[in-house]
Each structure stands twice: as C-alpha cells, then as structure tokens.
C-alpha cells in the first residue's frame, strides 16, 4: 500500500528555516521523479520544486530559487525540502508528489509570521 507522509511544518518567523520531509512507503523514491507543491489559503496549488529520480537534476519556481533545496535519502525512502530565509508568502500547506502517479499525502502546514 502506497503512503506519502509529509511532516516538518511549523509556525516560524520570517527569515527562519524549516526542513520538510516526505516519507514514502509502498514504493521506492529512487525510482521516480518527485516534486513539492504547495497551496496557500484560498489559492490554487503551486509547483515549488522537482527532482529527477536519480537526483542529478533539480528545478525550482522562481520565487524560491536560492532559498529552498530539494533532496532525497533513498536509504530512508524520504524526500526533503530545506527551506531557508522564509517569507510570509511561503505560508501554505506543502505536499509531495510522485511524477506520473496520483498518490497523495495529507500535507504539512507551514506558517511564516512574526
């Protein structure tokens, strides 16, 4: 049974950092390209970052370039998103996604506020 469990979200002050985790089960993250997406209150889903299955290629939406880093640990079957220099506009529920699949997790809430 496939499961995606996102965690690591919190209330953090502007300029702070967080690391989000997406722990997968029922499949190997090493076999798939994966992404992080987010949904801010009252807004549509927004793509944030992607990484190829081998981890050699990453991409980011313009607003997070230089601040966020996507990575994975295949031994832990987990995808990560390191978020630095957080801004209030980063407030959203963050989800991981597996390319080509409809698998979904519950998301993790990130709130950036002073």
General form: globular
Mean pLDDT: 96
Query: Nearest-angstrom radius of gyration?
Result: 13 Å
* Helicity range: under 10%
Biggest sheet character? 6 strands, mixed
**What is the tally of helical segments?**
0
Strand order in the largest sheet: 2-10-9-4-5-6
Low-pLDDT segments: none
Find the structural class using helix and strand composition.
mainly beta
Describe this structure in words.
The mean pLDDT is 96. The chain contains no helices and ten strands. The protein is globular. Strand 7 and strand 8 form a beta hairpin. 0% of the residues lie in helices and 48% in strands.
Write the layout of secondary structure elements.
Layout (H helix, E strand, L loop, with lengths): L2 E5 L3 E2 L5 E8 L8 E6 L5 E7 L6 E3 L7 E6 L4 E6 L8 E7 L9 E5 L2
Parallel strand pairs: 2-10
Antiparallel strand pairs: 1-3, 3-8, 4-5, 4-9, 5-6, 7-8, 9-10
